[in-house]
Specification:
The chain has 192 residues and is α+β, with helices and mostly antiparallel strands. The protein has two domains: 86 residues, no CATH class; 81 residues, no CATH class. Helices cover 36% and strands 21% of the residues. It has five helices and eight strands, in the order E-H-E-E-E-E-E-H-H-E-E-H-H. It has a five-stranded mixed sheet with strand order 1-5-4-3-2. The protein has a three-stranded antiparallel sheet with strand order 6-8-7. Helix 1 crosses helix 3, helix 2 packs across helix 5 and helix 4 runs antiparallel to helix 5. The longest helix has 19 residues. 30% of the residues are buried.
Length: 192
């Protein structure tokens, strides 16, 4: 069981060794996903397990729960025995809890694949609401469900298009284009 203080992982720079940087990314993703969901609710996120038993990726996803901001986030893998707690996460840059009341808008449920969810998590420059929607993608059975308003879906589509247009890496550009195609099909919007 991994017990971590998120404050120790907030200032990880580019010169940090790979394993420490990957652990920091893993923990920050867990905090973002847990805080994007509701408190006192245990749920399975779209985040994959980082373990590789027998040199093969674990098929499990991260399950998170938390009760109050002062209390730690508890997480575990849905398949293997990887688990842990994260403390001092509240008010960090990865804390995606709503900070104020917002007007309620109708939402739609978009089923996305693993690659689309991973591409959405890497998008920079998303506003707080879109980040919350991306990290709140829930695994229900073998499907990943993205619950968004029409405005958030349009913002995600625009962000994917902008990022793909400015991406010099061809492989990543294809991943972003595939995610863009998936979301525009789900939104019923024509591709330009």
């Amino acid at each position: 069981m991994l017990v971590a203080d998120l404050q120790h992982f907030l200032d990880v720079g580019p010169d940090t060794p790979g394993p420490a940087r990957k652990l920091a990314e893993h923990l920050s993703g867990i905090v973002a996903a847990a805080s994007a969901g509701e408190a006192q609710t245990r749920w399975e996120t779209a985040l994959p397990c980082r373990r590789r038993p027998a040199h093969r990726a674990c098929p499990g996803r991260i399950v998170v729960s938390w009760t109050q901001p002062e209390h730690p986030i508890n997480w575990c893998c849905s398949h293997c025995d990887d688990a842990g707690t994260i403390t001092n996460w509240a008010t960090s840059i990865y804390d995606l809890r709503r900070q104020q009341l917002t007007a309620s808008e109708p939402v739609q449920d978009v089923v996305v694949d693993t690659d689309t969810a991973a591409a959405l998590r890497t998008l920079p420059f998303l506003d707080h609401d879109c980040q919350r929607a991306v990290f709140a993608i829930r695994a229900l059975g073998n499907e990943l469900h993205l619950t968004v308003t029409d405005t958030e879906l349009d913002d995600l589509i625009d962000s994917l298009a902008a990022e793909a247009n400015h991406e010099p890496n061809r492989r990543r550009q294809r991943q972003l284009d595939t995610a863009y195609d998936h979301l525009t099909t789900a939104a019923g919007q024509p591709r330009w």
